[in-house]
Structure formats: C-alpha cells, structure tokens
Design brief:
Distance between the termini: 28 Å
Shape: globular
Helix content: 55-70%
Mean pLDDT: 82
Number of strands: 2
Structural class: mainly alpha
Strand content: under 5%
Order of helices and strands: HHHHEEHHHHHHH
Low-confidence stretches: 83-92, 229-236
Largest sheet: 2 strands, antiparallel
C-alpha cells in the first residue's frame, strides 16, 4: 500500500463523514487500499484531515456497518475481504447484525445525552453518579456489574432533566441487556466499563459537554469492541 496523503485527498471533497466514507470506497476501488490494510487511528486520521474525531468516528462506523472495514482491539481498523465490501446489515449474521444495530442506536443517542447531562447536572445528579461508581469498584460479579452499568447510564439520562430522554434510555436498556451482560462477562470488561464511567463523570462534573459526548462515544466504542471480539471468537 502506498503512502496516502489523506489531507490532500480530503481537500478535494466536501466536509462531512460521508466524504471520508466515499474516499475510502474510492481508494479500495482504485486498488490503493486492499484487504488487510490498516487505516490510521481515529486520532491520527482526525489530525491529518483537520477534522473532529466525531466526524472520523461516524465515517468509520458507517464503513463498519457496510462491512467495508473491521475493527478489533489491538488490531486496529482494517479493510475487509473484497467479497465483504459493500455489504449492508442484512447480509451480516443475525448476532453480528443485532450487535451493530444496538450499538448504532446507542451511538446516535447517548453521546448527546451525556452532553446535555454535562450542561444541566445538579449537585444531586453528580452525587448519584458518584455513588454508582463507588459501588462499581472492587470485585463484582458480572451480573452485579451489568446492573450498576445500567444504573449509571440511567443516572446520566436523569441528569438531563428531561424525562423523555430518561424513558428512552430505560427502554433501550431492555433491548441491550444481552450486549451489556456480554461486555461485563470478563474482569477486563468490567474494568473498562468502570474506567469509561469515570471519564464520563469527570466531564459531566466539569460541565464540559463536548468532553462528555466524546467520553461516552469512546466508552461505547470499547463496549462494541469487547462484545464484537467475543462474537467473532465464538462463531469462528
């Protein structure tokens, strides 16, 4: 793979995640990106493009939904086999499709909810979040850890002072129960969850809406990586 000047190529395109998505597809079609090639990290790509990490994350997520790239912890984001490129959700396995759909829903909702929580959280809201995190420390069973994870995300939603957003998070908790249980199955998964929650709380406490949204996005990306890795391992 030749060295790609991402900034020069993106300068020719209109801004937005769809431009980066189209660029990656064009590079694949032209043979400049091949199966197994790794894309730069989100942070590096954002710097090269002069774009936000949120834009890059959205574009990569769309590429993953289409089956054009594959993301795994420790391996990065790589171009898939040619026969997989361009697949939509309907062509994926039922379990993989369900994972991507649920995490796509969360990615669309929860970062914005975290941002609103940072703007509107009261001292009582912060105390509730701190209490959940304190209970999450130490050696917990997977079931208890998953329960506290659900409580934390509900508490973030309540901090928006919008009962409709709280109802949305409480409703989706039923839909993502399997994802939540799987992400808390291992001790490593439980540690990642706690670390993610601590970063979200720090941003909410600082009333930094942009940092809260970014921390929530990073947290959800880690959940997707943890669950996605296990799904591939058990189906392979």
């Amino acid at each position: 793979m030749r060295v790609i000047d991402w900034s020069a190529l993106m300068a020719e395109a209109s801004p937005g995640p769809e431009a980066l998505t189209a660029l990656v597809q064009r590079l694949i079609a032209g043979g400049e990106l091949r199966s197994g090639d790794r894309l730069p990290s989100e942070r590096d790509l954002a710097e090269m493009l002069g774009a936000s990490r949120a834009l890059v994350r959205e574009a990569i997520h769309e590429l993953e939904l289409k089956g054009i790239v594959d993301r795994r912890p420790g391996r990065g984001t790589r171009i898939t086999e040619p026969q997989n490129a361009g697949r939509l959700l309907g062509a994926l396995s039922e379990s993989r499709r369900g994972l991507l759909e649920m995490q796509d829903l969360r990615a669309a909702l929860e970062p914005s909810i975290a941002a609103r929580a940072a703007d509107r959280a009261t001292p009582a809201d912060l105390l509730n979040l701190e209490r959940v995190i304190e209970e999450s420390r130490g050696a917990l069973t997977p079931a208890r850890s998953a329960e506290l994870d659900e409580r934390f995300h509900a508490a973030v939603a309540r901090a928006t002072q919008n009962p409709l957003l709280t109802a949305v998070v409480e409703t989706t908790a039923e839909w993502i129960a399997d994802v939540r249980r799987e992400s808390h199955r291992t001790a490593a998964g439980r540690r990642h969850s706690l670390t993610g929650h601590q970063k979200i709380l720090a941003a909410v406490r600082a009333h930094d809406s942009a940092a809260a949204a970014a921390a929530m996005s990073d947290h959800l990306d880690m959940v997707s990586a943890l669950v996605g890795t296990h799904e591939r391992d058990t189906s392979g």
